[in-house]
Amino acid sequence: MSAEQRGPDAPVSAGDRTRPVPPTNPVESTAQDRQTRRQTSVSNPRELPLSYRIERTQLRMQVAALERAVETSEKRRQAIIDQYERLLADRVDESESTDADSVSDSQSLLTRLLAR
Fold first, then answer.
1. Which of 82, 79, 60, 59 has its CA nearest to residue 71?
2. Domain total for the chain?
C-alpha cells in the first residue's frame, strides 16, 4: 500500500520503510559512517574501495622501482670500488717495479764507479 493510499495516521509496515531516518546530529552520522566503513574494510580487504586498491598498487610499484634503483646504485658503487682496487694494485706493482729498476740502476752505477 502506498503512502498516498494510507491515511496520515496509518502505521508504516517494515517493508514500506526503505530509507533509514537520518540522525539528528550530522557530525555523529559522518563519524558513524566512517567507523562502519573502516570496520568493513578491515574485516574483508577485497571490499576496499577501488581508489584504495589503486593507491596500494601505485605504492607497490613505487617501492619496486626504488628497490631496483637501490640495487643498481649498489652495483655501480661496487664496480667503482673494484675499479679503484685494480688501479691501486697496478700502482703498487708499478712502484715496486720502479723501485727495483732504480735499485738495479743504482747498483750498476755503483759497480761502474768502483770498477774505475
1. 79
2. 1
